[in-house]
Amino acid sequence: MNHQDLIQKLAVCAAACEHCMDSCLSEDNVQHMVACIKTDRDCAKICQLTASFVASGSRHAQHLIKECIEICNECAAECEKHDHDHCKQCAKACRECVEACKSYQTAQV
Amino acid sequence: MNHQDLIQKLAVCAAACEHCMDSCLSEDNVQHMVACIKTDRDCAKICQLTASFVASGSRHAQHLIKECIEICNECAAECEKHDHDHCKQCAKACRECVEACKSYQTAQV
Amino acid sequence: MNHQDLIQKLAVCAAACEHCMDSCLSEDNVQHMVACIKTDRDCAKICQLTASFVASGSRHAQHLIKECIEICNECAAECEKHDHDHCKQCAKACRECVEACKSYQTAQV
Amino acid sequence: MNHQDLIQKLAVCAAACEHCMDSCLSEDNVQHMVACIKTDRDCAKICQLTASFVASGSRHAQHLIKECIEICNECAAECEKHDHDHCKQCAKACRECVEACKSYQTAQV
User: Fold this and answer.
1) DSSP state letter for B32
2) Chains in contact with D, where contact requires at least 3 CB pairs less than 8 Å apart
3) What is the per-residue pLDDT for A109?
4) Closest approach of chain C CAs to the CA of D21, in angstroms?
5) Which domain of life is it from (chains A, B, C, D) (predicted)?
């Protein structure tokens, strides 16, 4: 897992979370999607920041990757509770992002 | 040009800018790279925000795309003054991002 | 209006928007707050980025201030439709942010 | 230490880092300021994100506060090596931000 592949997975995940969050707000039963909206919000932010730290070669990137894995896992678990396409796509992007983060962590040791 | 392709170009450009900025700071003649560092800094930020607005379906996305084109063009012109690989790659990413933004603008009209 | 006062108003507005958005998601009638949530989301982002551009002395700060005024005005107008305390506080922060942006624009000419 | 005071300290610190970074790039001896520029860059980003998580009431705010303390401490230590006014101001903002983060951590337990 190199820098660029990780950054791409992080960017795809951030975009999937932003899209899922916005789509949840257009669902008939918004009330039911509140937890999903909140975790999408947090996950989009941490993925964006992590991508920024990795791309800039910051020595704090590893700490953010660790936090990113935690939030992505939580977001995937929440999205997997719902049948909407945007939730399924978001869960998939989160899971792939977690895998990319873990591969990158291993490669850097 | 659909949403996802544009978002990908914006993410690649943001990452190229962050990498170029960091690499400029490691060049022997940092003084010579100051203008490049500053435009990389601005370009990374506007690309990240524009991607975020586009991904979330915001109705203000078009305004940010317009500003993004301007800053990307400026960043490309600055990077093209230098022979470093990271500058060349960043200039290329900025030019491709501008093209993607323009195609997206046309497609939305 | 100097740099630091403007940055402070932008930061207060960004935080008010984030808080309003989160509080809207906890209201009994979330459906009724969807437009408010979306404009809070956009307004928080543009205020954060504008603060970042102003603080870093970027020559693109003025363009972002212009966009920031537009989104803050829209967010204030939306929040003023609602009686929740968080909406009232957010509307107030948006209005003060617009005033700060305009004073800063005038001072820079 | 309440939410709003912490957010204000984070915003002041982020702005001080952005200003210090930009001012370092205008110093005669930029080469000498490279480490300061890089830590300013990281510190501005983590303070902005932490403020965003705290303001939105995210349950991940505490993790980011922990990381924020670490990067702020590092940034303060680097800035304290230099005599420039912007470095001194940035170091002061970082130290105050660390204190605010720690008070907030204690208050939340």
Assistant:
1) G
2) A, B, C
3) 63
4) 7
5) Bacteria
Q: Domain residues of chain C, as ranges?
A: 3-108
- C61, C46 in Cβ contact below 8 A? no
| Chain D environment of B26 (Cβ under 8 Å) | 34
C15 to chain D, minimum CA–CA distance in Å?
Answer: 5
* Residue ranges in chain D assigned as alpha helix (H): 3-24, 34-55, 61-79, 85-108
Minimal C-alpha gap between C38 and chain A (Å)? 8
Secondary structure string (H, E, C) spanning C26-41: CCCCHHHHHHHHHHHH
Residues C4-45: tens digit of each pLDDT: 999 999 999 999 999 999 999 999 999 999 999 999 999 999
Q: Classify domain D3-108 by CATH number.
A: 1.20.1270.360
Chain B residue with the nearest C-alpha to that of A59: B22
**What is the Cα C80 distance to its own chain's centre?**
13
* Contacting residues of D for B30, CB less than 8 Å apart: 30-31, 34
User: D15 contacts in C (CB within 8 Å)?
Assistant: 4, 7, 11, 51, 55
Q: Do A34 and C30 touch (CB under 8 A)?
A: yes
D32-52, pLDDT tens digit by residue? 999 999 999 999 999 999 999
Mean pLDDT to the nearest integer, C63-88: 98
Residues of A in contact with B8 (CB under 8 A): 8, 11-12
Tokens standing for residue C107 = 């001072």
What chain D residue is nearest to C11 in terms of C-alpha separation? D11
Checking if the pLDDT of B108 tops 90, the result is no
Count Cβ–Cβ pairs < 8 Å, chain A vs chain C: 18
C-beta separation of B31 from D26 below 8 A: no
Residue B75 predicted with pLDDT over 90 = yes
Number of residues assigned to chain D: 109
Q: Pick from D39, D45, D54, D56 the residue to mutate for testing the A interface (most A CBs within 10 Å).
A: D45
Q: What sign for the dihedral angle of Cα D88, D90, D91, D96?
A: positive
pLDDT at B37 exceeding the cut of 90: yes
Q: Which residues of chain A have a pLDDT value below 70?
A: 109
Of A53, A73, A39, A45, residue with least CA distance to A6: A53
Give the pLDDT band (50/70/90) at residue B109.
low
Give the residue on A whose Cα is nearest the Cα of B49: A48
Look over chain B and give the mean of its residue pLDDT values, rounded to a whole number: 96
